[in-house]
Amino acid sequence: MQITSFNQYEEDYKKSIENPEQFWGEVAQNFQWRKPWFKVLSWNFNEPDIKWFEGAKLNITENCLDRHLEKNGDKPAIIWEPNNPEEESVTLTYKMLHERVCRFANVLKRNGAKKGDRICIYMPMVPELAIAVLACARIGAVHSVIFGGFSAKSIADRINDSQCKLVITADGAYRGNKQIPLKDVIDDALIGCPTVEKCIVLTHVRTPVSMLKGRDVWWEDEVKHVNDICEAEEMDAEDMLFILYTSGSTGKPKGVVHTCGGYMVYAGYTFTNVFNYQPGEVYFCTADIGWITGHSYIVYGPLSQGATSVLFEGIPTYPNASRFWDIVEKHKVNTLYTAPTAIRSLMSFGEEPLQGKDLSSIRVLGSVGEPINEEAWHWFDEKIGHGKAPIVDTWWQTETGGIMISPIATVTPTKPSYATLPLPGIQPILVDENGKEIEGNGVSGNLCIKFPWPGMLRTTYGDHERCKQTYFSTYENLYFTGDGCLRDEDGYYRITGRVDDVLNVSGHRIGTAEVENAINMHAGVVESAVVGYPHDVKGQGIYAFVINPEMHGEAELTKKDILQTVTRVIGAIAKPDKILFVFGLPKTRSGKIMRRILRKIAEGDTANLGDTSTLLDPGVVEEIIAASKALK
Ligand code: WT7
Question: Mind listing the domains of the chain with CATH numbers?
Answer without folding.
Answer: 61-84+92-233 (3.40.50.980), 502-630 (3.30.300.30)
